[in-house]
Write a structure and sequence with these properties.
By secondary structure, the protein is an alpha/beta fold. The protein contains 5 helices and 11 strands.
């Protein structure tokens, strides 16, 4: 199974993500430059964290018009594989309309970089099948614009259709609506999350629980 890690100008988490996918999980992994259009060969595409285009205009607003992101629309519609956006990748997916809602400035107007607790509220998705429902995970965050917001009709749709898979547990670090930390689309093939699972995928990094998301995706691709 091939995985592509998309790199934009300003991306800074591609190496960690590549390492986890290739060395720890066993994907045949490649870097994908943002101008790439041939992405159908990948079973998994990951948009990692960072500051694409320096977060000018808005976080993810410029990256959304990159050729690779424009190709993602057809990739998702034809269900060719899974797409995961982590932190800035999540921001890009919402800006591109591949996920509902948006990410805006943290409620305290500060950059936050620390471990937080999140709860797995839906473990019936390709990205969460290795976890128990209600399981609490400690995963790092590192963002200025991590506050998830959505119009009422979008939020109602997300909640009604059980599209939230991660919620902040205990303290809400950024003021996200409904404590949302991760959402999927209606097709359940696009996933966005603000926490960085690649930064806690080995015991030396903390507990290593983050690897469960990537192992879940691999198992889902293998067995459906």
């Amino acid at each position: 199974m091939k995985a592509g890690v998309v790199v934009f100008p300003g991306t800074n988490c591609e190496s960690e993500t590549f390492y986890v996918l290739k060395e720890l999980v066993g994907f045949d992994t490649y870097y994908v430059w943002h101008e790439e259009k041939n992405i159908s060969r990948f079973s998994l595409i990951v948009l990692p964290g960072g500051f694409s285009y320096g977060d000018y205009l808005r976080s993810g607003a410029m990256a959304k018009v990159s050729p690779v992101v424009e190709e993602l629309h057809e990739y998702v519609e034809k269900e060719k594989g899974f797409v995961v956006g982590i932190c800035n990748g999540f921001q890009i997916l919402t800006e591109a309309g591949l996920l509902q809602g948006g990410l805006i400035r943290n409620v305290n107007l500060k950059f936050i970089c620390r471990f937080v607790d999140v709860e797995v509220v839906n473990n019936e998705l390709p990205i969460t099948r290795k976890f128990r429902k209600g399981e609490i995970l400690s995963i790092p965050i590192a963002h200025m614009d991590g506050r998830y917001v959505a119009h009422k009709e979008d939020l109602d749709f997300i909640l009604t259709n059980n599209l939230v898979f991660l919620k902040y547990y205990g303290a809400n670090p950024n003021g996200s609506m409904e404590n949302i930390a991760g959402v999927t689309n209606y097709k359940r093939n696009v996933f966005g999350m603000m926490p960085h699972p690649e930064r806690n995928s080995e015991a030396i990094q903390g507990t290593g629980v983050g690897i469960g998301f990537f192992l879940s995706l691999k198992e889902s691709l293998r067995h459906g």
